[in-house]
Specification:
This protein is mostly beta strands. Helix content is 9%, strand content 41%. It contains 15 helices and 83 strands. A hairpin with a 5-residue loop joins strand 27 and strand 28. The protein is globular, with a radius of gyration of 44 Å. The model is unreliable at 1-9, 195-203, 965-981, 1093-1101, 1157-1178 and 1203-1247 (pLDDT under 50).
């Protein structure tokens, strides 16, 4: 309905001055409900208003700004003089007076405005409460059992405490609505069961429910309350904000006696309530379960005898508040050249610091400020020498409540009183008698002088300002007749509690200032501006995806959802990941017997988390199991097959189950009944035979929708001689269906659709994607004009909540269309929008300080393209979560053309987690690492396989036996080639630790004299011996002055290609590489055996007897691990007894990883390296060795090349030198003095 217009004779309102102090006020003659507004510029002119704010009031004073989305709302106005702009109010209000405050106007002209207001008539009975009178509404019956309640009322007050309504019953039930510190508190108790020893005085703790709502409700403005209760479900609404909750206790009815009161408690109840205050203020439109209480009061139908003077109008308070922002200042006059400074005022603020007032002295000045929640006074005296007197009082005064301050400086003493507490007044002596300057600056002091205060501004409200013991008339200030002000909003207090409702999620603590709020998320398990994002992964499967090994982790299955994070044990195996949740029941717990035969014995299991958290694990798992075992002595279990079960267990949802481990639902049997091997074939459980001997029924419960076991109830343990013991193992779940839930989009037009995205004040989306396309839309949801969209063009996140489109973009250092998995996380809340890519790249955009904060969407959520468009996504999307809920992509893909469930190619993104040359194997819902051709084990092929050897222990691997059954042999080829590869090259790697010398570590023999041996000599140095066909003596490489028998793990890698040998080893975290070349035959005769550690001579190729005698007595004692010869891991084959192999063990071998270090480690400081005494010399020596080696080989090449071209020359080169690869090889071949023998003194090469 059209309520009013404002047309001036010149075509609209246009003030003489265009500034922010102008306003247009509309008087509607009576209170009306306003639902919409419209504005135009001044007719046929260049005058219009672009932006404005709205104030409203019942009386023409105490103005209240229109608020929306927790902000003082700014309306968009006009951009020309003709077009009308209309706004439907999100929150209609009731008022008689409405003010328009222009904020921005036409650059070509000035402020111009025509307005229209839309709404309807409003009328309500108003009752004024003075703190004495109470309305008593008596019930028609003495006692009322109320199942459903609907209570509504409106109130306005300047008091922060007082009871609005109260009712109670003799059974302990009660309902109370009251103000406490300007917040509304609803307390309900529907009662509990009492025994003879319990008391029902004023309810019980078990049934008590208390919910708080709102803040700053003592603002002298109307607030509406609605309470709706049905049984234990309650909706509690304050000013359009609704909280829904369930009451504690176990009853549904509210049992009240005699009456319910409004405005306070009856005298009889106040005696036991702790003297709580009655309400002072006004109420209107009071309704209780269909009865109009205010109308009944006017008609004298209810008891109002406690009122001294019952009035049906609302008395206005005499306060005249002023609202300050960071640029505000209020200047008031005072007495000049007086010897007294006396200032009193009330203030309320959220800011910990700010200037309350400042006044110059002659000489000096007085500053009264709020500093970290305390009122602090600084008195400056500049006569002679500078003197400063400081006093402070109070604490936590920035809590948004009204506080009073009284400062008095009289003659030579200063006094500070907070909140009228004269007993806590702080006093200080002054060095001289002060003289006033005459001016007082409140809330801000911006002139730059030598005595500028430390605090220069204040954000909040002040009222009841007294200067020189006189109340300042702020209405005169507003009219320009007293003092002056700048950017001060008079006759209103627009302070906002930004922490109510609390936008900090998951228990984050909210703190605020006048401009903004922030959330402290420490200890919550969440992060972000509103503590929205979980810092933990959703499951053990995701930790494996990140390359983590078995350990205890925090997981958060629903991400940003309400479920709190919790700890589980993750057992990461080669082909699966187990999540383990333990309970508190000890193994083989004895089952206590009852006093009577009909008694049941109950054992309750408690898990390390809530039932909801356990259900989150089982719901997402692919498979779950829990082991149960019942040991019995004359105690029946299920009483099968005919009788009712003696024992049952309780699982998920408190459902009873009558089957036991090893069986399934609907079958009253144990494992032996399924396998038909019970002790007594007439029964389906061993214990049901009822024998006087110990029996057991055990097995796995594997129906995951019934798990976990929360209780076991026993019915056959009361008989004489009956005994029973129970074991319930941990709950173990494998897999994560949510994490691998994926869909493949095969055409640009293919898409999936889901219900509308719920994104009121916060929302988050996360998913993995991989594609070879350069663009495409991941998802979109539309509103009007709101929308949300995630798109691949780089990666962009765009949305609109009514403030205009916002787009965030992140750039990656690598292409995103590389067919690798990438993770996208997008979040929007009222503080900021965040876009993250691969947990590395991040873009953040802060929300505007004022504007829309609620996103309203109406279309379906489209995944894979935009609605009605073609910019479709080609590729895979996996683990799509919206607000913590995983969307079932696979389920929708199964019934949607152009989209396929699942996605292959996991190894392309995750293969790097398979270490040590492990092979990545594709699976439908993930990947696994094949470690069969490595010397390692574990889910990622990074677990060492080794053993501890005692004297006489031997591991032998028969290469000929291994290769005899290979396809290569059947085809007539040397079978050993398939086992060890190309015989012109080989690679041997292992790790060892020992403190004993000498020892043979590894010996690889053949049917001929060829062999490779790695030995530790008597002095602990390492020696490698090669004998390839043609050498009269073995080629030896010795590493002198390096004692490797020091008990530390050392890694060795020997690689040969033809005649070039590379030796790499890691000692004490330092890496070394050496190169050697040798002469004669460069092909290893097919090896027959690999021996590790201590050798025997039976059934082997030829073994050097001198080497064995010299180095293998008494044998190797120590640890070896990660032994690999080409593609063969002999030690792993010997220790893995379940896998057929040609490995055998002689003696005692205990499996151990030997404390081996990683194969690749960063360089270590030489300070900690026992092999190095001078790090600089070691580095220089290594460089020199490499340079000399290169120079020698170069010189030999040049000499040979030069002599070839000269024709005839003299040389000492012997026969066979032509075939040598380098000078060293030529000398070795032809000079007997350099020929290697077993004699170390003559025939070793030293480094």
């Amino acid at each position: 309905r059209h309520i009013g217009k404002n047309y001036a004779c010149n075509g609209g309102w246009s003030p003489l001055d265009s500034d922010r102090y102008q306003w247009l006020q509309v008087d509607l003659r009576a209170r009306k409900q306003i639902t919409a507004i419209a504005t135009q510029g001044r007719y046929s002119s260049s005058d219009w208003t672009k932006h404005y704010r709205l104030l409203y009031s019942d009386t023409g004073s105490k103005w209240k700004p229109y608020r929306q989305d927790s902000n003082i709302w700014t309306f968009s106005g006009n951009w020309n003089s003709e077009r009308a702009v209309r706004h439907e109010l999100q929150h209609p209000f009731v008022a008689q007076y409405v003010r328009f405050i222009p904020l921005d106007w036409s650059e070509e002209g000035r402020i111009g405005l025509r307005v229209e207001l839309y709404g309807c008539a409003y009328w309500a009975d108003v009752i004024s409460f003075d703190g004495q009178g109470v309305i008593s509404y008596r019930f028609r019956q003495k006692k009322m059992k109320i199942l459903k309640d609907v209570i509504s009322l409106k109130f306005k007050t300047t008091k922060g405490d007082g009871i609005l309504l109260h009712g109670e019953g003799q059974q302990g039930d009660y309902i109370t609505l009251e103000l406490q510190r300007a917040k509304l508190l609803l307390q309900i108790n529907l009662g509990k069961r009492f025994n003879s020893k319990s008391s029902n005085q004023y309810g019980s703790i078990q049934g008590h429910t208390s919910v708080s709502s709102g803040s700053l409700l003592d603002d002298d403005h109307w607030h509406s309350v609605l309470i709706e209760r049905y049984r234990r479900s309650v909706n509690f609404t304050l000013d359009q904000h609704t909280q829904s909750f369930r009451t504690n206790g176990e009853f549904d009815h509210l049992d009240l006696d005699y009456e319910i009161t409004f405005g306070g408690m009856p005298v009889s109840a106040k005696l036991s309530s702790g003297g709580r205050e009655n309400y002072i203020g006004c109420m209107e439109a009071i309704h209780y379960n269909g009865d109009n209480i205010t109308n009944l009061v006017r008609r004298r139908k209810v008891d109002t005898s406690s009122f001294r003077n019952l009035t049906f109008s609302c008395t206005e308070s005499r306060t005249f508040p002023a609202f300050f922002n960071s640029t505000s200042s209020l200047q008031l006059p005072g007495r000049t050249d007086a010897d007294t400074v006396s200032v009193r005022l009330q203030f309320r603020t959220w800011n910990p610091s700010g200037l309350l007032f400042f006044t110059p002295l002659m000489p000096g000045g007085v500053e009264v400020s709020l500093v970290e929640g305390k009122v602090t006074v600084h008195i400056y005296v500049t006569l002679g020498k500078n003197t400063r007197v400081d006093i402070s009082s109070g604490s936590g005064l920035n809590d948004g409540q009204w506080h009073s301050v009284h400062f008095l400086a009289l003659e030579s003493i200063a006094m500070l009183t907070i909140n009228g507490d004269e007993m806590s007044t702080v006093r200080a002596a002054l060095p001289i008698q002060i003289r006033t300057g005459g001016d007082y600056f409140f809330g801000g002091y911006f002139p730059r002088t030598d005595l500028s205060p430390s605090q220069r501004s204040f954000q909040g409200c002040m009222q009841l300002i007294h200067v020189d013991d006189q109340l300042v008339d702020l209405q005169s200030v507003e009219q320009g007749m007293l003092g002056s002000f700048e950017n001060v909003s008079l006759d209103m207090c627009a302070i906002i509690d930004r922490c109510v409702p609390n936008h900090c999620e998951h228990g984050g603590k909210c703190s605020q200032t006048g401009d903004t709020f922030k959330c402290a998320c420490e200890g919550t398990g969440y992060s972000g501006a509103t503590c929205h994002n979980s810092v933990y992964e959703q499951s053990c499967e995701e930790y494996k995806h990140l390359g983590r090994s078995s350990d205890t982790y925090w997981i958060d299955p629903d991400g940003s959802g309400p479920l709190e994070p919790f700890r589980v044990t993750c057992n990461v195996m080669e082909d699966k990941v187990w999540t383990t949740i333990v309970n508190d029941l000890p193994a083989q717990s004895s089952v206590a017997t009852g006093s009577r035969a009909e008694d049941k014995t109950v054992l309750t299991l408690n898990y390390s988390m809530s039932a909801e958290q356990v259900n989150a694990v089982t719901s997402s798992a692919e498979f779950c199991e829990q082991h149960v075992a019942y040991m019995c002595y004359k105690s029946r279990l299920l009483n099968s097959p005919d009788g009712s079960p003696s024992t049952w267990w309780v699982g998920r949802g408190n459902e009873k189950h009558f089957y036991w481990g090893g069986s399934g639902p609907g079958v009253q049997k144990c494992a032996c009944g399924i396998e038909r091997n019970c002790t007594d074939p007439r029964y389906y459980c061993n214990c049901d035979a009822d024998l006087r001997q110990w029996k057991e029924d055990a097995g796995m419960l594997m129906y995951k929708d019934h798990l976990p076991v929360s209780q076991v109830v026993f019915g056959d343990v009361q008989r004489s001689g009956s005994e029973a013991r129970l074991t319930v193992g941990p709950l173990r779940c494998q897999g994560d269906r949510h994490f691998w839930n994926a869909a493949s989009f095969n055409t640009p037009a293919s898409y999936l659709h889901f219900p509308t995205f719920q994104a009121e004040t916060s929302a988050d989306v996360s998913f993995y994607f991989k594609t070879s396309a350069s663009h495409g839309v991941f998802l979109e949801n539309l509103g009007n004009p709101d929308y949300i969209r995630l798109e691949l063009k780089l990666v962009s996140f765009s949305f609109d909540v009514g403030n205009g489109a916002v787009e965030l973009t992140v750039r990656s250092s690598t292409p995103l269309n590389d067919d690798q998995w990438h993770r996208v996380e997008a979040e929007w809340n009222i503080k900021e929008a965040v876009l993250r890519l691969d947990k590395v790249h991040r873009e953040t955009r802060s929300a505007p300080p004022q504007g829309h904060t609620h996103m309203q969407l109406f279309s379906q959520l489209f995944v894979g393209k935009i609605s009605g468009g073609q910019r479709g996504f080609l590729g895979c999307i996996r683990s799509l979560k919206v607000n913590g809920v995983t969307l079932d992509l696979e389920g929708r893909a199964k019934v949607t053309p152009g989209v396929k469930p699942g996605c292959s190619g996991h190894c392309s993104s995750n293969g790097m987690h398979c270490r040590n040359e492990g092979k990545c194997i594709e699976k439908y819902n993930g990947y696994s690492c094949d470690c069969s051709l490595t010397a390692f084990d574990g889910p990622f092929c990074n677990d060492d396989v080794g053993g501890y050897f005692e004297s006489g222990t031997l591991v032998r691997y028969d290469l000929m036996s291994e290769s005899s059954s290979s396809p290569a042999v059947k085809e007539g080829n040397p079978g050993v080639l398939s086992a060890v590869g190309n015989l012109t090259r080989e690679e041997l790697s292992f790790s060892f630790s020992t403190s004993h010398t000498p020892a043979v570590l590894i010996y690889i023999s053949s049917k001929t004299q060829d062999y490779l041996a790695v030995v530790l000599r008597h002095n602990g140095t390492l020696q490698i011996r090669y004998n390839l066909g043609g050498l009269r003596e073995s080629f030896t490489i010795s590493l002198n002055h390096r004692n490797m028998a020091n008990g530390q793990p050392h890694n060795v890698n020997i690689s040969r290609q033809d005649r070039l040998i590379q030796l790499a080893f890691i000692l004490k975290h330092l890496s070394y590489n050496f190169y050697y070349c040798f002469h004669t035959h460069s092909q290893f005769f097919p090896p027959s055996d690999i021996f590790c550690f201590c050798l025997c001579l039976s059934e082997t190729g030829q073994i050097d007897p001198v080497l064995i005698e010299r180095y293998n007595t008494p044998g190797f004692v120590g640890c070896l691990s990660r032994v690999q010869f080409n593609r063969i891991a002999p030690l792993k084959a010997a220790l893995r007894t379940g896998v057929p192999s040609s490995a055998s063990i002689q003696g005692d071998l205990v499996e151990s990883n030997c404390g081996a270090s990683p194969l690749t480690v960063p360089p270590m400081s030489a300070v900690f390296d026992p092999w190095h005494t001078d790090s600089d010399s070691a580095i220089i020596g290594g460089i020199i060795a490499v340079v000399i080696f290169i120079i020698l080989c170069t010189l030999v090449f040049l000499v040979r090349h030069m002599f070839h071209h000269k024709g005839s020359y003299h040389t000492n080169e012997a026969k066979g030198a032509e075939s040598a690869d380098c000078a060293d090889a030529a000398i070795i071949v032809n000079d007997p003095a350099f020929t290697e023998t077993i004699d170390e003194s003559k025939k070793e090469w030293f480094l």
